[in-house]
């Protein structure tokens, strides 16, 4: 009876001592090299998320324009109220309104000059929309490479432990290197995937604003070409 109780107690202790998977423990067990690389990846993730949300709301604001805007511009220009048309553009404070405002300021000059002025202003607006977005593309490529660097460091640590152990393989000795190798790889891939997805989403949103700017610019030039 005592023997049976002791056996069950040993089984319960073994079950209770079973290790559970913890992200925090994986990071802390990865050694100083793994923690440094994961800290760098965390900084890159924070930068990527900041740029994404900052650009997302900026582009969202830039895409908003009154559906009746061009009708009002047409009415003002047709009746020679250029000051009113210019004031309307300034009140909207959007890329499209600024392009139309640039064109209005050139009315009276050759149509090619107006078109050139609008195109130049459009390039500046696109540059402002795409500000810092390229950083996301860089992070999406660099993060997995940094994670792979951690993998290489982890494997070096593991091989070093084996060499110091005189060829006797002990999984406890290898744990730091293996943790570093695995956690940094996963961390780098996660950061890279997030940066890649956010970059492409911003590119799509920016393209929509650019198409809107082009459409309204063409509509404005058509207005100037209409017979008086």
TrEMBL record:
It holds the Pfam family MotA_ExbB. One of its GO terms (biological process) is protein import. Its main location: membrane. It is found in: Cell membrane; Membrane. The keyword Transport applies. InterPro entries: ExbB/TolQ_transport (IPR050790), MotA_ExbB_proton_chnl (IPR002898). The chain crosses the membrane at residues 32-53, 133-159, 179-199. It is a multi-pass membrane protein. GO terms for cellular component: plasma membrane. Residues 93-214 form the MotA/TolQ/ExbB proton channel domain. Keywords: Cell membrane, Membrane, Protein transport, Transmembrane, Transmembrane helix, Transport. Belongs to the exbB/tolQ family. This is Putative biopolymer transport protein. It comes from Polaribacter irgensii 23-P.
């Amino acid at each position: 009876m005592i023997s049976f109780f002791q056996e069950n107690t040993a089984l319960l202790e073994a079950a209770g001592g079973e290790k559970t998977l913890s992200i925090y423990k994986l990071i802390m067990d990865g050694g100083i090299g793994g923690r440094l690389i994961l800290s760098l990846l965390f900084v890159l993730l924070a930068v990527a998320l900041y740029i994404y949300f900052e650009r997302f709301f900026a582009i969202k604001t830039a895409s908003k324009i009154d559906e009746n805007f061009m009708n009002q511009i047409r009415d003002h220009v047709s009746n020679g109220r250029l000051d009113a048309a210019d004031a309307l553009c300034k009140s909207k404070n959007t890329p499209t309104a600024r392009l139309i405002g640039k064109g209005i300021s050139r009315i009276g000059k050759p149509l090619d000059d107006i078109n050139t002025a609008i195109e130049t202003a459009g390039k500046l607006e696109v540059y402002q929309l795409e500000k810092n977005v390229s950083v996301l593309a860089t992070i999406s490529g660099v993060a997995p490479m940094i994670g792979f660097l951690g993998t290489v460091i982890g494997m070096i640590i593991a091989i070093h432990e084996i060499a110091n152990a005189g060829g006797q393989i002990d999984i406890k000795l290898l744990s730091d290197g293996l943790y570093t190798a695995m956690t940094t790889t996963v961390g780098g891939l996660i950061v890279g995937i997030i940066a890649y997805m956010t970059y492409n989403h911003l590119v799509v949103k920016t393209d929509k604003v650019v198409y809107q700017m082009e459409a309204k610019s063409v509509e404005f030039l058509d207005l100037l070409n209409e017979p008086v």
